Amino acid sequence: xxxxxxxxxxxxxxxxxxxxxxxxxxxxxxxxxxxxxxxxxxxxxxxxxxxxxxxxxxxxxxxxxxxxxxxxxxxxxxxxxxxxxxxxxxxxxxxxxxxxxxxxxxxxxxxxxxxxxxxxxxxxxxxxxxxxxxxxxxxxxxxxxxxxxxxxxxxxxxxxxxxxxxxxxxxxxxxxxxxxxxxxxxxxxxxxxxxxxxxxxxxxxxxxxxxxxxxxxxxxxxxxxxxxxxxxxxxxxxxxxxxxxxxxxxxxxxxxxxxxxxxxxxxxxxxxxxxxxxxxxxxxxxxxxxxxxxxxxxxxxxxxxxxxxxxxxxxxxxxxxxxxxxxxxxxxxxxxxxxxxxxxxxxxxxxxxxxxxxxxxxxxxx
Length: 366
Ligand code: NAD
Ligand code: IPM
Ligand code: MN
Known about the structure:
Oligomer: single chain
Number of domains: 2
CATH superfamily of the largest domain: Isopropylmalate Dehydrogenase
Shape: globular
Bound molecules: nicotinamide-adenine-dinucleotide, 3-isopropylmalic acid, manganese (II) ion
Largest sheet: 10 strands, mixed
């Protein structure tokens, strides 16, 4: 299998946190005697500025020839008024997900024990832990449904619309991913929809009930998305696996990230087809964005990027020990009191550090 990883740092804090992830990869490779070939390519606003397109052909080619993609983040105010196809998000990130069929987005929201007081929810609600896997459908729904259009009608009124569409096979495959993940966890799946309003959600809920029959050991529950947003804050400790469509998953996963302390803590894996060895081609990226408000200041939290690297090692290369070593190093640095600004609360024993210092501490812990 190819040992090549395409590295797409992107915009804003992307390159800053990516630097730390690459240093961690070097360190973990040395420790576990692994070797990877990294191919750095342009994506997003940085690619647009350099080449006139947010997703150059060379970038796609490189990804096609790699085992997986380590992605930073794209976008920012500089590019948000470009025509949609030239924008970093719609012209690069979404096309990459679609092109590689990365329909399964895993976002593991975990509040580390030493970070419970950095979470905005009451301490006692997560005293027994917050550990939720959000399984977000990533290549369907309203993000990609056609038609998608802006126009002016005969009366001269401007309008815009998006189409929310799911086929049954698209729903079945993401549910199977969620149920399979639940089998390795607490065997509970909460399917989130809006079946009281949306036709796509009615199909989603019926399909969830059908797929659940393939996994008799797993308990299935359903929540409407508005209630789910509320219940996540009311009883965060009671969720195990949450499965939902593209847009709902986008929103709920940011909420989960904050329950775990910060958006800068939540990694993600976007997976497509599994090969015969059970490994995936995947794209691995922080759940948060380019954070223009802190970009270039050296203060961004690199942990989401570093944990995304761990997910790459686990899901694309099957290097479970190396992945676990990274997860453990992150946990120990947090337990030691090192905090970037987003998770710093000023509590006794906490030391505020920048992006590079956090990366160095994680490498030292490795
Ligand atoms: P954002 O996730 O970039 O930032 C939201 C808030 O979280 C900001 O206050 C930011 O400083 C903070 N934050 C995020 N990551 C952090 C980190 N690692 N460390 C510390 N703080 C962190 O969301 P936004 O401001 O709505 O979007 C900014 C740009 O990023 C937009 O162009 C958006 O489209 C893009 N975006 C890209 C991705 C991606 O590339 N995967 C994901 C989300 C948003
Ligand atoms: C995410 C981001 C993207 C999404 C944007 C940047 C297109 O918010 O990965 O969560 O909505 O999927
Ligand atoms: Mn998002």
